[in-house]
Amino acid sequence: MSLRRTRVKICGIRSVDDARVAAAAGADAIGLVFYGPSPRHVGIGQAAAIAGSLPPYVMSVGLFVDAPAEEVRAVLAAVPLDLLQFHGGETPAFCAQFDKPFVQAVRVRPGVDLLQSNGRTMQYRPLARGLLVDAFVPGVHGGTGQSFDWSLIPGSLRGEVILSGGLTPSNVRDAVRQVRPWAVDVSSGVEHSTGQKGIKDPRLIEQFIEEVHLADV
Q: What burial class does residue 208 get, using C-beta atoms within 10 Å of its C-beta: 0-12 exposed, 13-18 middle, 19+ buried?
């Protein structure tokens, strides 16, 4: 039996109802996307209502992609975010200027060395709270539904990374058992298969979180 519990974030939440479903199912965090090109993008008023509806101990996470500092500050002035998540080419110094804990995302592909000492991927410590590893898809920053080769994650990092990219209720148990990440992050993997991105399926959210819990047993 695992000595700790794998945390779960449901990203791309666009309604109060979906946020409440995720919280009731056992999510530790929900993600709000502040990136205009994403089909899961939320406006500031919409995001404030969602974040304000969360129960105690469920974190609200704001996701940004190369947003100007003024835009991030405008969101923070209106939305009670607990954590920031940066998916672009932001430097750790840029991310740290908002006096909020943050995580940085790295899109993993062959040739990316997550242990390089002089690159952005290892600069996240000590400023950042964590490192999220996602699949590399050219021109797309997350929410692609694509996975990557988990063996590319060095063993020394596996206990602390946030694993994302192509996770679904059908594969997340294997993912957790193979990688043993600190947390998993899912978006498209818990959406209705209607072709309309960003519409969450309550049943899939519940199944996903249940599978994560079973992986820890």
A: buried
Segment 113-133 shows an average pLDDT of 64
State the catalytic residue, choosing from 11, 95, 185, 201: 11
11 is known as an active-site residue: yes
Indicate the SS3 state at residue 61: strand
Give pLDDT, residue 146. Answer: 65
Domain around 48: 7-215
Confidence of residue 185 (pLDDT cuts 50, 70, 90): very high
The angle at the Cα of 2, spanning 215 to 176, to the nearest 5 degrees, equals 35
Q: Please confirm, yes or no, whether 174 is among the known catalytic residues.
A: no
CATH code for the domain of 113: 3.20.20.70
Pick the catalytic residue from 18, 28, 134, 185.
134
Phi/psi of residue 183, nearest 5 degrees: -150, 165
Number of domains in the chain: 1
206 in a domain, yes or no?
Answer: yes
Kindly report whether the global pTM for this prediction surpasses the value 0.70.
yes
User: Can you give the pLDDT at residue 89?
Assistant: 87
